[in-house]
Amino acid sequence: MRKVALLGNPDTKRTDYFRQAAKKASLPICFVDWNDWGKQWGGSPETELFLKIDPPLWKSCSLGELDSLVGDYKRKLDKLAGMADTYKIQYFNHPLAIAGLLDKRACKKKLCQKGLPVTESLETEGEEEPNLLSVEMLLERMEKCDIHQVFIKPVIGSGAAGVSAFRWQPRSGKMVLYTCSLEQEGIGLVNTKRLRRFTEPEQIVSLLNRLLNLDCIVERWYAKEEYQGYSYDLRAVVQEDNVDFLLARLSKGPITNLHLNNHPMEAGMLGLPASVLDSVEEICRKAMECFTGLRSAGIDILLERGSLKPRIIEMNAQGDLIYQDIYHRNVIYSHQAQIMKAWLSGSGYLGAEK
Amino acid sequence: MKEGLENGKKVKKYTYSYEEYEEQGKGPDSRVEDILADPDFPGLTGIIIGDWGDAWEDGCQTMLDNIVANKEQFSHIEELFIGDMDYEECEVSWIIQGDYSKLWAAMPQLKALTIKGSTDLELGEICHEGLESLTIICGGLPVSVLRSIQGAKLPQLKKLLLYIGVEDYGFDGDADTIKELLEKADFPNLTYLGIVDSEIQDDIAKIVLESKFMGQIHTLDLSNGTLTDKGGELLLEQLPSYPNIKKLDVHYHYLSDDMAGKLEGLPIEVDISEKNEPDEYRGEIYMNAMLTE
Predict the structure, then answer these.
(1) A354 pLDDT more than 50
(2) CATH no. for residue A305?
(3) Residue B126 to residue B245: CA distance in whole angstroms
């Protein structure tokens, strides 16, 4: 007997719109709640299961807790991967692939090894991990690389958590920091989901020191292409070799994450040359090939201003929730439902289970 | 490079990409040479110069000097914008501008000049028979620049748009500086007056309403600042006395809904978009102009 299951959170847009797509495809779904997943698991060794794993919900916005939250999530993913020893289980995205993409440094390393264009990292080859920098070390590194504007991102986490854009003039000492992180008494750094701009070096150094304690990756800040006064990057949702959705994330600030109330728009409206879109699609397909067990991912790509050269910023194995899709055609979840239905009927291509 | 057609004019933007300035060594020294080498250039009526690479270290003076040195080849250019960069490329306050004093005589055909950034900006003695539009976008306009504009001989000037900004980023004047500017400036053909992006926008509204230009302009632009109901009330009271005014632009403001509604009720075109709410922190109220860096 074959069953399709979704491990997720009740009453969320992810669950609701995935269920709608499944219903439309006449696909029966067993829902398993993350809050109770250990107990709810009623599988038997005879049942063949096809499982989609959505991310658990995190209530804390403290950046200091990111490590433990992600650590706990990784342990759960390990456990889910181990279930394949006991049960006949196929994964929509393999738990180890999901875990692999939680680490921005490791993800980028893999993409670089395959020769894919990524945002340039200021880290040196073979550097010991974790990479705990002080502000002095960061400035030294920026000067050595002759790079005066960088993005600093905690190596783990999503939703713009801790992501900061930093600009520095070595000669004058002027600094600017754009960040959603703020020091909150008794909690430490929190993700406020509101972009702020700091210019006082003392305040910036204090914030950066705290941020850099989290193990961060540091990348060159490229000027992103602009559209009607907004800069933007792209979120491609790629599923089984196909770019199912390409979204432009427009912003009036340097951080374009969708959690920051930026302006999302279908990328088709940007009027980009076909050659650029082809190149984005090709990079996306090649990026997916870098990761075993990955059937679906959200890939963030910037286009360098002027040249429109695409570079991968990061990948997320659970980056499939796009409001502009679910409220319109629900293409992404419908495609997922089709993949699952094909599996259920025994004709499914399970290419991601390498 | 980007280009576009507007009102039958052909304007092209010249920006160096990251690869061009980081890997090919392009910069302000090569900018004018590259523009002159562009086959499109002879057919243009306007040029926009965007990022020239590390604009916070290398200013635009070389470009200005090279335009002046090649003035005959620029003699068809009627619109010039220097420094069209956004936060992705350079902080506005970090853009190093230059001295424009030789440009006035070198480009007699120029009709519109837009400058972004005010660091090291000097306009010198302005004397130009044909300039119709002058716009300066910055986070803080120095008094020295305002004084140049105040004494400018611009008989054809139709549009004056000045971002006043804040003290931290170069505005070293006060409401009286703006009052003096409007009292002493002589622009007989001015139809668009914009004194915008100020944290004393209410005071500026009062000064502008008392100025001699109120009887001649058709557009009043007090946008992008901290305009509150205090300034709104003055506009509401006094604008009906000026039937010549056809448009009021106060977008990006701190007006109440009630006041915004009343202003919208004026029998003219009103842009009252982008309402802002003041921030309160430890009992203090904070309001910011749109561009304050």
Answers:
(1) no
(2) 3.30.470.20
(3) 28
Mean pLDDT of A259-285: 90
Chain B partners of A231 at a C-beta cutoff of 8 Å? Answer: 86-88
Tell me what percent of the residues of chain B surpass a pLDDT of 90.
Answer: 87
- Is A260 within the bounds of a domain? yes
Stated length of chain A = 354
Quote the tokens at residue B157. 């000037």
Low-confidence ranges of chain B (pLDDT < 70): 1-8
For chain A, the domain total comes to 3
The interface residues of chain A toward chain B in range 33-62, judged by CB-CB distance below 8 A, are: none
Q: Are residues B104 and B80 in contact, defined by beta-carbon separation less than 8 angstroms?
A: no
Same domain for A105 and A235?
A: yes
- Strand A296-303 with A310-316, pairing: antiparallel
Closest-CA distance of chain A to residue B87, Å: 7
* Chain A residues with CB-CB distance to B87 below 8 A: 178, 231, 253-254
Contact A248, A266 (CB under 8 A): yes
Specify the pLDDT at position A353: 46
Q: What is the pLDDT of residue A190?
A: 80
**pTM for this prediction:** 0.85
- A260 and A111 housed in the same domain: yes
Q: What is the pLDDT of residues A287-339, one digit of tens each?
A: 999 999 999 999 999 999 988 999 999 999 999 999 999 999 999 999 999 99
d(CA A282, CA A301): 12
CATH number at residue A25: 3.40.50
A45-72 residue pLDDT tens: 778 899 999 999 887 767 778 788 889 9
Residue A145 lies in a domain: yes
Q: How far is CA B168 from CA B120, B135, B287, in A?
A: 15, 21, 15
Contact assignment for A304 to B18 by CB distance below 8 Å: yes
In a domain, B183, yes or no: yes
Interface test with A, best of B3, B22, B23, B88 (most A CBs within 10 A): B88
Number of separate domains in chain B? 1
Cα–Cα distance for residue pair A33/A10, rounded to 1 Å:
7
Is residue A203 within 8 angstroms of chain B, CB to CB?
A: no
User: Does a structural domain hold residue A353?
Assistant: no
